[in-house]
Description:
Elements: E1 2-3, E2 6-7, H1 10-18, H2 27-42, H3 51-61, H4 76-90, H5 106-112, H6 120-127, H7 130-142, H8 144-154, E3 167-173, E4 177-183, E5 193-199, H9 200-205, E6 218-222, E7 231-237, H10 238-242, E8 247-249, E9 261-268, E10 283-286, H11 300-305, E11 314-317, E12 320-323, H12 324-331, H13 339-355, H14 364-374, H15 389-404
Antiparallel strand pairs: 1-2, 3-4, 4-7, 5-6, 5-9, 6-8, 9-10, 11-12
Helix pairs in contact: 2-3, 2-4, 13-14, 13-15, 14-15
Amino acid sequence: MNLGNVAYTKEQLLDILNYPGFPGDGLNPMARELVSAKLNIANGAGHECIDDAIVQVDAIIGNLISKPVGNDTIPIGNVQGFIDHLTNYNKGDLCCATHCSAIPSPTPTATATPTPTPTPTPTATPTATATPTATPTSTPTATPTPTATATPTVTPTPTPCQLDKPAIACSTSAASNIAIDVIAGESGAPNGFVIEWMTVADFIANGNQWPDNPDEVCQASFSNSLAPNQTMAVVIGDDRLFDSLGVRSDCSGDPLLCDTAYVFRCRVNETDSCEASPWGNIIACATLPCNPGQNCTYSQGYWKTHSDVWPLQSLTLGAVSYNASQLLQILNRPAQGNGLVILAHQLIAAKLNIANGADPTAVQQFVINADNMIGGLIVPPIGNGYLSPNQTSELTDTLTEYNEGTIGPGHCDD
C-alpha cells in the first residue's frame, strides 16, 4: 500500500498501526487512519465521501515516512482536521459507509424459536385441534397492534436526529476577505459545516432570498469538527480559503470585492445517523474600502489570474530562481498543510506588488526574512521542500496583511 509517494509492506503497515505515537506528531496518527480507510475501501466500503480527503492526505504525506518506519513528523495541529475526518469515516460516522458489526443478532432468536414448538405439538395434537388453531388466530390479531404502534414511533425520530443549526457573526474585514465566527449549536458539528455567500446587491435583486440554484452562490465546505457551542473563526476570501486545510470551495480563487457588502449563512453537515441542520441566521458584512490611488497592493488571487500584467517574468524565492510558468504552478498549488507553499504564495504576491510600484516599507524586512527562511528549499510542485506552518505563520500573516491592504499602501480596486 502507498502512503503518499512511498510504498509500504504489510509488516511496515502493521508497525505504523501498532505504534503508540510521539508527542505532538500528527503524521503517524494521520497515517494510521489513512491505512484503515484504504483497507476499508479495498474491502468494499463506500468511499465517495472520503475520496477528496484521501487525495489531500496523500499529497500532504508526499515523501514523508511515518514513525516507526521512518523519522518524519508533522505538527498535529496542522493535520488534526484530516485525522478527525478519516477517523469519522473509519468509525462509520460519514454518510457513504456505515460501521461493520460482527454480532449476528438474529442467530440466537432463530435458535430459541424451535425449542418451545415441539413441546406443545405432541401434547396438543391428539387432544384438541382447536387449541392450536386459536393460538395462531390470536397471534395475527395481535401483530397489527405493534405494527401500528411502531409507525408513529418512527415518524418523530428525524426531529431529534436533525443537528442543531449554528449561528454566525461578522468578525474582522480586509479589502479582499471577511472573517466569520461560526458558533455550533447544542449538537455541535461532527462532520464540519458549510458556508454560503453572495453580494448584498445580488441578494436584494433575488427578492431578498437565496437562489434555488446553488451554482448562483459561492460555497465553502469545512471538514473541521466542532464541539457543542464551540466557536471557530473562518476567513472567506481567496488567500485564506485556498491555503486552508480541509476546505473545499469552487470560489477559493476568487477574492472578495473591496468596499462591498456580502450576506452569509451556515449549516452543519449531516452525519450517518442525523440529518444536516437547517440554515442558521443570515448576516451582512462588508469588506474594507479600496485604495483609489496607484501604487497599491493586490492579493495572490489577483496575480494568479492576471499573469498578463505581471511586472516581472521571473522571481527569486529564497536562493532559487523561478520563471513565470513555474511561479504560476506554485500559485495554483494548494498548500495542503505545507507552510513553505503558504509562505511562497504570499512572498510571490508581495514581490510582484513591490515590482508594480507598491511602497515596500511595511514589509521590506519580512521579505528578507522570508527569503532567508526558504533558503535553498525548492517550492512544490517544482520541488519537494517543506516547512511547518507554525514556523512560517508569522511571516505569512504579515505578508498577507500587506497584500490584502490592511498594512502598507492599501489594497487596489480589483
